[in-house]
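We were asked to recover a plausible sequence for a given structure. The inputs and outputs are reproduced exactly as logged, with field labels preserved.

PROBLEM: sequence recovery
POSITIONS: 434
GIVEN STRUCTURE:
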């Protein structure tokens, strides 16, 4: 008989912290590619293109990782629903770490010709495959251990991982940018963050080696034979609504962290260091506010909190691009921060919300597929679409603001159609009087 007693106190903190650390490593791997795509991959791997076309091509390889994420969620979701959440964490971290180190070893177009961008595509695909499995395993292991009344709070720990991974990735890039000349950074400096992924993945595996399997998985009586088939047959509408609801979160995050970096340096002439500093400062505040959003989700409901964040996104997308177009650091930071607060108001609770939408036997597949399909809609296309739209207007990219507002309205409608899942507190029996 398995021991499925709830985890509390220091043990819950250790488990949540280990999930956060592993997720941070995974997202470091994923984000360091996005930064490189915005800064150097275009000229190095697509030298025959114009600067704008080269950036578009680099963002296309960036988008391949998002296309792979739903496939990773299917592969690792099957393992998670059939074999347990814990094996997913090890396999996904190994795959993402190894492919990231390999990206740093790919010769440029000048050395091996067209094979260089093809290798980038393959390795970026493998990165996405691993990350597609990471989120479901890390979130479910935490959510299924957590007490119901604080599930959103504890589940928000893995959601801090993307912010930590982004800050780590861009901190390394920022340090290299300051220490190296532009020529040195383009020649070899950009590869260093990819090589560092090997050491980080090793540390992440060590931290995860002590994690125990989740009570939610151990209590499943009969496991789904083909989890994906069951999800598509019985929960397809919920998966599509989830993907549409989360699309704006991905669109906001990658507009701020990836597209705006390229736009600011190439179109506005802002230095790479200034752009990275503004973005990193906003992401740092966003990460710190993640538990606040989660507490609101535990208090007022997951759906309510997500609807509030989505409404904020609808109102703030045009101000975001207007403030970015000024090129002034403080104003750009203000625009980024407002957008990321709207983002985290939603994404601070989805780690509890999505698992609660599905029964335990298909939870790993259902939650992860919906989450990563949202990444395709909002994350894969946004840098490409924003780059194309920004090239058609004046200094202020109003087309980008309209595009983001449209996605926010779509997500608002999808959230409105999803149910509330916050556990209802048990009623306290009235005292018996004589």
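RECOVERED SEQUENCE:
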């Amino acid at each position: 008989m398995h021991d499925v007693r709830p985890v509390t106190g220091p043990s819950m903190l250790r488990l949540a912290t280990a999930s956060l650390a592993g997720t941070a490593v995974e997202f470091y791997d994923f984000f360091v590619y996005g930064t490189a795509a915005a800064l150097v991959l275009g000229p190095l791997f697509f030298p025959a293109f114009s600067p704008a076309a080269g950036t578009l091509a680099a963002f296309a390889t960036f988008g391949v990782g998002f296309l792979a994420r739903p496939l990773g969620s299917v592969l690792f979701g099957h393992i998670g629903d059939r074999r347990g959440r814990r094996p997913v964490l090890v396999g996904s971290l190994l795959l993402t770490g190894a492919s990231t180190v390999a990206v740093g070893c790919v010769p440029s177009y000048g050395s091996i010709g067209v094979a260089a961008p093809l290798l980038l595509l393959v390795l970026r695909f493998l990165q996405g495959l691993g990350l597609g499995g990471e989120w479901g395993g890390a979130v479910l292991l935490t959510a299924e251990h957590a007490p119901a009344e604080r599930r959103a709070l504890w589940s928000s720990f893995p959601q801090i991982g993307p912010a930590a991974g982004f800050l780590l990735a861009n901190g390394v890039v920022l340090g290299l940018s300051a220490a190296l000349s532009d020529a040195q950074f383009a020649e070899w400096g950009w590869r260093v963050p990819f090589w560092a992924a090997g050491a980080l993945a090793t540390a992440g595996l060590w931290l995860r080696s002590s994690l125990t399997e989740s009570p939610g998985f151990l209590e499943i009586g009969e496991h789904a034979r083909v989890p994906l088939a069951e999800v598509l047959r019985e929960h397809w509408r919920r998966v599509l609504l989830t993907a549409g609801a989360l699309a704006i979160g991905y669109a906001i995050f990658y507009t701020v962290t990836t597209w705006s970096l390229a736009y600011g340096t190439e179109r506005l002439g802002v230095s790479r260091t200034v752009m990275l500093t503004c973005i990193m400062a906003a992401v740092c505040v966003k990460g710190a506010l993640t538990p606040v959003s989660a507490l609101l989700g535990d208090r007022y409901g997951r759906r309510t909190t997500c609807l509030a964040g989505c409404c904020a996104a609808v109102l703030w997308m045009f101000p975001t691009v207007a403030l970015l177009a000024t090129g002034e650091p403080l104003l750009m930071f203000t625009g980024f921060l407002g957008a990321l607060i709207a983002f985290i108001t939603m994404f601070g609770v989805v780690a509890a919300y999505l698992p609660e939408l599905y029964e335990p036997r298909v939870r790993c597949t259902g939650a992860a597929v919906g989450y990563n399909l949202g990444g395709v809609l909002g994350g894969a296309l946004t840098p490409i679409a924003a780059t194309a739209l920004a090239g058609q207007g004046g200094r202020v990219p109003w087309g980008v603001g309209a595009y983001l507002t449209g996605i926010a309205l779509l997500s608002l409608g999808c959230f409105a159609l999803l149910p509330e899942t916050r556990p209802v507190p048990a009623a306290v029996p009235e005292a018996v009087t004589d």
